[in-house]
Write a structure and sequence with these properties.
11 helices; alpha/beta; about 300 residues; Spore Coat Polysaccharide Biosynthesis Protein SpsA, Chain A; two-stranded antiparallel sheet; about 25% strand; nine-stranded mixed β-sheet; globular; single chain; 15 strands
Length: about 300
Amino acid sequence: MACISAFGWDTYYCAMVTVNKALILAAGLGTRMLPATKAIPKEMLPIVDRPLIQYAVEEAAEAGIEHIIFVIAEGKEAIVEHFGSETRADAYVLEKGDPALREQVQRPAKLARYDFAMQDEPLGIAHAVACARQFLEGEPFALIFPDDLILARRSIVSQLVDAYNQCGGSVIAVHDVPREDIPQYGIVDPVDGANPARLRRVVEKPAIADAPSTLGIVGRYILSPTIFEHIDRTPPGKNGELQITDALMSQIAAGEPVCGFQYEGTRFDTGRPAGYLLAQVAAALRREDLAAGLRARLADLIGEEVGA
């Protein structure tokens, strides 16, 4: 339910809402995957036979989202082309007359309606969100980081939309992380063990001893319509960057509900070589046309390494 405060009291009037838009952030340099990302956007690196960013779009589309906005930067033109319909590949499949191949090539353009916003400087996640303000202001929207590939039986965005209607405000996808990994994550402080659970605060990359929980933030959110007001109130932090966690803390401080939600699915950090390789294998093992042969070959490779 989307909820609004009445008369300044901590009382909310709520109504079921539908989330119709998603924002996908794709302006980063992909420095952790150099040199592969020197000339190719990291979001266009393939997971089996689809670029990483297509998985994010399909996840949003599965949740019923029809309008997707990308924040991109210079050098990310391949993303625009991939979700277009007048490429050399489109012309090729039309001429070839192979219906199955044509469907695969044309599918990205048909998944949603697309708009693009440019981020000229890397000034933080909240700054990137603000770059797309004209397309999003006044309604809730999903925020997706395509580096986080999440394989699940049901779209994580769908799960978050349900959680948003329970929470009545912004929802953050979280999962339990090993204690030694806590300094790599934003960590949430839930008021109880509910799911979704209302949050007291969000702490960006705390020391292990200072962490309020082991629930780390994953790159999926539903942000309530007030988020832009709170971005406007958020002062720049380190390196002049605006962080979305600060804007969420501003919502909490204003008495708005912000919740953490423990989703069902398996997350892979494809922004790192090891995570990218694991994502490749996991995605391939979910494919009926690839799984059996891949399992056999992996067993052979592991056997060869053990025997070496």
